[in-house]
Amino acid sequence: MSGPQESDEPTEQIKNLSIRTTDPPSQRESRESPYGFVVYRTDYTSDDRWKNFMSFLNAQTRSTLLSSNFSDLLDGLDWHVQEASELNEADYDQVREHFKTWLTTNDPQNGHPRFQACVVVDDVCLSAMETALEDGTPEDFFDNEGYTHVYLVSKNEEEGYQAVGVSYLLPYAYNVLAEKGWEGIKQRYEEDVALPGDMDMTESGDV
């Protein structure tokens, strides 16, 4: 698979999403409330690789939040990274069970996407990031094609998991999950990377 096609900014369709979701309850959370998905690390081959990925994830998220007029959410961004020996090479079912256990003491039952699905980062995700940045590409480039990606794992077993482009994780996939549920981001195949052109971004009444 070839590397990503670099872009300076989101497509017009993505910009329109932030216009349509100007003030959704899931986004305009209290500054005291944590924002973002819980991240699960399932690759422990190198701490340096992990640090590089988290730097990349934060740069990507900062860039997309700023360009989408959600800069006020940056202060509340909290990935609450889950790291443990039992998570090394954990599969999606094992991560889901760990996440569900975490939810028993952390879910305020308010329906926010943070408590509906978690993010899994494995060796494939780390390798994709490394390939994307190997030629000196800046961390905050906009990856239109979703070459760099993570996996969203639903807390509901029947919903499974879905690959999502890192540049589309926050706020785009988060918004869609809040407004449309899992069906809004689900693709035909779980390994197909969910991009805004594929996600259900239409509001009621949209053509």
From TrEMBL:
Q: Where is the composition biased (Acidic residues)?
A: 1-11
Query: Which ranges are annotated Polar residues under compositional bias?
Result: 13-25
Which portions of the sequence form the region Disordered? 1-34
Protein name, entry field: Uncharacterized protein
Q: Which organism is it from?
A: Bimuria novae-zelandiae CBS 107.79
Q: What is the lineage of its organism?
A: Eukaryota, Fungi, Dikarya, Ascomycota, Pezizomycotina
